[in-house]
Structure formats: structure tokens, C-alpha cells
Design brief:
Layout (H helix, E strand, L loop, with lengths): L2 H15 L11 H12 L10 E2 L2 H15 L7 H13 L4 H7 L3 H19 L2 E2 L1 H14 L1 H10 L13 H11 L7
């Protein structure tokens, strides 16, 4: 489900409603979380002007961190990033991931994950996985903001729900609340 597909869905909804669907939020999980964090992120210390690291930015940072550790020959930046992303999608913090690290590769990734997060924080940057994680954190930390979004989204429709990961699932459960108007 891409931004292009979301735009197409928004256009179709506008046609069906014979009205501007402007009040509806149609988008990917990442696009919607980006919008929420731009408006509300300061409540958890995220500046409105944060940058989003793309694949190249992430790879460059992780490559540098692996080189600093002297382990660049033991794991590729792409492999380390896949493991970090997997941990984030399961909602594992760097500390939780470090506790679970068993193999040498996992220990390297645990150190890298921690440094990666610190460096991004210093650079006022988030990656795509952070958009979800930080929105979940925002809603957990600020129940008044969560309540605003529950009122804004009394009904939630998710395409391809079976493909949601843990972070997306938690976000949806928070937003749906007790009413559970999740389709």
C-alpha cells in the first residue's frame, strides 16, 4: 500500500461522497504517523522540523557505526539495518534487544542499534520505523492526545490488515480503544 495507492483511494472516496474527502485521513501507516508527529511530537521531545532518514542515510550511518566498532567485515550495513528494523517492528528498544542478543552478530547489532538511535536523536532525525514507534509512545505517554485522535477517528479502516506488524497493531488498538470500530 503506497502513497500513490492512498491518493487514489482518497480520490475515489471524494467521488463516492460527492464531496471533498478532505476531512478523512487516508494514507499509509507511515504517512499518517508522520502527520501526527509533526503536529504532536513535541509532547514527547520530537521537534516539528525533524528529518526522516531514507535508506541511503540509514545505510551511511550504520556503515560508519560498524566501522567505528571495527566490525564492518562481520556484518553488512544492510543486514544490520534489517535486524534493527525487525526489532523496531516488534517494538524492542535497543536495551531490550541487547538483553536478547545471543549470537556475536546480534551483539554487534545491539551495540549498533543503541548508537544508531543516539546519533539520530542528536541529528533531530527519525527513520520510517520510528514514525510508528514514536506515535505509539506519544499515545501511551499523552492520554489526552490519544483521546483527541480517538474522537477524530471514530472509525478506522485498514486495508491488508493481516499484514500489520506489532507496532502497527499496537497503534491501531490504541486508536480503536474500547469502541473497537476497526475494520
Amino acid at each position: 500500500f503506497t502513497n500513490k495507492a492512498a491518493a487514489e483511494m482518497q480520490n475515489r472516496l471524494s467521488s463516492l461522497l460527492e464531496d471533498d474527502a478532505y476531512g478523512l485521513w487516508v494514507g499509509t501507516f507511515h504517512r499518517i504517523c508522520l502527520r501526527i508527529l509533526r503536529m504532536e511530537g513535541e509532547a514527547i521531545g520530537i521537534e516539528r522540523n525533524f528529518v526522516i532518514y531514507d535508506d541511503a542515510d540509514q545505510r551511511s550511518l550504520v556503515k560508519s557505526l560498524l566501522k567505528q566498532q571495527g566490525v564492518e567485515d562481520m556484518i553488512t550495513p544492510a543486514a544490520a539495518l534489517r535486524m534493527i528494523s525487525d526489532a523496531k517492528n516488534k517494538m524492542y528498544s535497543p536495551e531490550a534487544y541487547e538483553e536478547m542478543a545471543f549470537t556475536t552478530e546480534e551483539e554487534i547489532v545491539a551495540r549498533t542499534y543503541k548508537q544508531y538511535e543516539e546519533q539520530k536523536r542528536q541529528n533531530n532525525a527519525l527513520d520510517f520505523d520510528d514514525l510508528l514507534i514514536c506515535t505509539v509512545e506519544l499515545f501511551h505517554t499523552c492520554p489526552e492526545i490519544l483521546q483527541e485522535y480517538r474522537e477524530r477517528f471514530p472509525f478506522i479502516l485498514v486495508d491488508e490488515y493481516q499484514d500489520t506488524n506489532e507496532a502497527q497493531y499496537r497503534l491501531l488498538r490504541l486508536l480503536a480503544g474500547k469502541k473497537g470500530n476497526l475494520f
